[in-house]
Amino acid sequence: MSLSSKDHHKVALDAAAWMFNIVTSVGIILVNKALMATYGFTFATTLTGLHFAATTAMTLILRSLGYIQSTRIPVADLLKFVFFANFSIVGMNVSLMWNSVGFYQIAKLSMIPVACFLEVVFDRVRYSRETKLSILVVLLGVGICTVNDVSVNANGFIAAFIAIWSTSLQQYYVHFLQRKHSIGSFDLLGQTAPPQAASLLLFGPYVDYLLTDKAVNEYHYTPTSVMLILLSCAIAIGTNLSQFICIGRFTAVSFQVLGHMKTILVLILGFIFFGKEGLNLHVVLGMIFAVVGMIWYGHASSQPGGKERSQSSSNNNLENELDEEI
């Protein structure tokens, strides 16, 4: 069956959204790696606060130009989102610090089944057998590529648990709020970025001090480190916006599944720019599995019955269930 011009337009926009997210996400990883590893700016939570401050400035400019409406989200919904989002940021930073890289990667992979669980419980989504198998192939492939030297302790496990659930809820809530309030990505980002920036800049330096035993105000700033911080903030605007666009157009599960393409690209770029020491047969095999799984997931989930929401699930029911659970 041939696609209509409307379908072709949607496919093109979907592809552009994913490419936008991949490019900005990989870019910010490379810049932050240089900033933290080379120049010693290890204040990840504070840096994220600066990211959202820059994003807030961008949303104010877009509002003045008429691209963002003056939509207001109820304070309760806004506070829930900021709570999940901030716990996600702190939880991921603490998890990376307290756990081995292998367990950290396992924690990131486990966000996919958690996101699936949230969609099944709140949205009454049903997955076909083929869709489930494709997700397993993605998990297997990324796991082969990234998971090694797995060790965990009690504190690290708790941090990873908090990170997994808060990140999954934050990503689910982006899609939920856009559907519930019928607002676009720009509008939602304009509502959520300011309180996130304020809270992270207020508490971020304290959190970073607890994690690194270093104070952000005592860091020796150089022209190069300041330039990298500004570049990181500029790229973060695109990263934040592209995340909202992608989750709004798709779902948290699709965002997680296809988002692992960024992991594969980071590995490839690492081999290109930093040598091929870690490149071996099992890594290449894992990459092949992951890419095949992502392609399979895209095909399977788009088929009739591949991934569908129960007709009995309405926005009102969803709102009530989420309010009761959270």
From TrEMBL:
Keyword Membrane assigned to the entry: answer is yes
- State if Protein biosynthesis is listed as a keyword: no
| Sugar phosphate transporter domain segment(s) | 23-297
Instruction: Mark the transmembrane ranges.
Output: 12-31, 43-66, 78-96, 133-151, 157-176, 219-238, 250-273, 279-299
| A single cellular component GO annotation | membrane
This protein's major location comes to membrane
Keywords, alphabetical = Membrane, Pyruvate, Transmembrane, Transmembrane helix
* N-terminal signal peptide: none
> How does the entry describe its membrane topology?
Multi-pass membrane protein
From the UniProt entry, list the residue stretches annotated as the region Disordered: 302-326
Q: Domain of life, per the record?
A: Eukaryota
Where, subcellularly, is it found? Answer: Membrane
The record, for PANTHER family, names: SOLUTE CARRIER FAMILY 35 (PTHR11132)
Q: What is this protein called?
A: Glucose-6-phosphate/phosphate and phosphoenolpyruvate/phosphate antiporter
The organism is Handroanthus impetiginosus
